[in-house]
Write a structure and sequence with these properties.
The structure holds two protein chains of two kinds.
Chain A lengths: L1 E4 L4 E5 L4 E4 L3 E2 L5 H12 L3 E4 L2 H6 L6 H14 L1 H26 L8 H29 L4 H9 L6 H16 L3
Antiparallel strand pairs in A: 1-4, 1-5, 2-3
Chain B lengths: L8 E8 L8 E5 L3 E4 L9 E5 L8 E7 L5 E7 L6 E2 L8 E7 L7 E5 L5 E5 L5 E4 L12 E11 L7 E9 L5 E5 L8 E2 L17 E2 H5 L9 E10 L11 E7 L2
Parallel strand pairs in B: 3-11
Antiparallel strand pairs in B: 1-2, 1-12, 2-15, 4-7, 4-9, 5-6, 5-8, 8-11, 9-10, 12-17, 13-16, 13-18, 14-17
Classes of the chains: A mainly alpha, B mainly beta.
């Protein structure tokens, strides 16, 4: 097959034992099945341009369709695993945003925030810190074995709910997560 | 149903992002991919790892910019809870895009090698994340303006975000402002990333309420509002590695 990077300096594939670095138009003789699978994915998202034989094309895997991923997303929200990942993602977002805010608050002189800007930044910071405490507590409760709905209520300091109401709420939450329109 | 918590308000990409000039951008919401607004704070080599041992069939493609400005990309196969180093990408300066070939069962984390700082995660079921503005450049002959769209989505199963408003919480460069689409769940596009989209509120750095933009004050359960960002580069603007952070606020029962 002939392969070249698509508008970038280099695309590489490795599986721990072998490595292929594509930094110019090149010919790959006898590409392995694992390499062809990865090339299929890389081509689909625009990292490389490929000229391949019919046999090679047949082994180049297409990425999972978004429709199939959406079904998995809904299932992950239903079983609660998405919520764990979402709270983890929120903690990264909050950490970085708080760091940005702290940097802005530390600026002195002419570039310093005015009183309104400082108050606004500090309010956002407080909200993110609270959200982070809730998410951290949620993740701890989930790690301890509590289901999603009970954990989010406990973490947020909300009244408890029945198991049936929790199950219904989690179903509704899963629908909201996977909704596209 | 529990009140809305901060993590229920999720930023998500629009269907069509663009790394190149000349292609349409925007569209409907992409529930599988998130924008990230902040960047690595220091150059480092990276690794990718899942929280689920069974995630061994998916590949992860990580596209980065190196300190010399070149763009490199590496595709590796996940190895469950064993981290896979992106050793051929080597030390990189910023992460542009991470994409999985298929959803994972666990949370996939991109972080500095040796279990260092985490820069982004992909929750189970989702497919990736990428910088909101990437691979653009200023011009020697005039200003350059880029547009990018994302959505704020209320993923709470029951409650609406009451009196919702979108504002910026950090814009260190001062080069980014925003406009909201005029309908919830809108699928507007722009002809390309340097052409202004139609049907948004006027671009500004100040907060925009949902009521002002759409006539509806509340962002209902499962609904999303499109937010267009505008990056205005001056002639010969220096290269930028910076952040921009949007926020959505409101109240909840």
């Amino acid at each position: 097959m002939e392969i070249e990077p698509n508008g970038i300096a280099q695309w590489a594939w490795s599986d721990g034992d072998r490595e292929v670095v594509v930094d110019r138009r090149m010919t790959v003789d006898k590409p392995t099945a694992a390499f062809l699978k990865a090339v299929g994915h890389a081509e689909a998202i625009g990292e490389v341009k490929v000229k391949a034989s019919k046999d090679e094309r047949a082994k180049m895997a297409a990425p999972e369709s978004d429709a199939d991923s959406l079904k998995k997303l809904h299932a992950a929200a239903l079983d609660g695993s998405w919520h764990v990942g979402n709270h983890e993602a929120f903690l990264v977002f909050a950490r970085d945003t708080i760091a940005d805010i702290d940097r802005d608050l530390s600026i002195e002189g002419d570039e310093a925030l005015d009183d309104d800007g400082r108050a606004s930044a500090e309010a956002v910071r407080a909200t993110l810190e609270h959200g982070s405490r809730v998410s951290a507590e949620y993740l701890k409760l989930r790690a301890d074995g509590l289901d999603h709905e009970h954990a989010v209520r406990a973490a947020a300091g909300l009244p408890e709910t029945t198991d049936d109401e929790a199950a219904d709420a989690q179903t509704a939450h899963a629908r909201a997560v996977a909704r596209k329109d | 149903m529990a009140s809305i918590v901060a993590a229920d308000l999720v930023p998500l990409h629009a269907a069509t992002q663009s790394d190149v000039d000349g292609s349409a951008v925007g569209g409907a919401i992409d529930p599988l991919r998130r924008p990230v607004f902040t960047q690595m704070t220091a150059n480092s080599a990276l690794e990718v790892v899942s929280s689920a041992a069974g995630d061994t069939t998916q590949t992860a493609t990580v596209r980065c910019r190196k300190a010399d400005g070149t763009i490199v990309s590496q595709t590796v196969t996940l190895n469950g809870t064993t981290a896979v180093a992106l050793s051929t990408n080597g030390t990189v300066e910023r992460i542009l895009k991470v994409e999985l070939s298929a959803s994972a069962t666990g949370t996939v984390t991109v972080r500095n090698t040796a279990a260092g700082t985490t820069w982004g995660t992909i929750p189970p079921g989702e497919r990736g994340f990428s910088a909101i503005f990437r691979e653009g450049s200023s011009s020697t002959s005039g200003t350059v303006t880029y547009y990018a769209k994302f959505f704020w989505k209320n993923t709470n199963g029951t409650n609406a975000l009451l009196g919702a408003s979108v504002s910026e919480s950090a814009d260190p460069t001062g080069l980014v402002d925003h406009g909201l689409e005029t309908s919830v769940g809108g699928s507007n596009t722009a002809a390309n990333r340097q052409t202004a989209p139609g049907t948004t509120t006027a671009f500004a750095s100040t907060a925009v309420t949902l009521s002002t933009a759409t006539g509806t004050a509340d962002l209902g359960s499962g609904l999303a509002i499109g937010v267009w960002l505008r990056l205005s580069l001056a002639t010969n603007n220096a290269a930028i590695r910076s952040t921009y952070t949007s926020q959505i606020a409101g109240s909840t029962t």
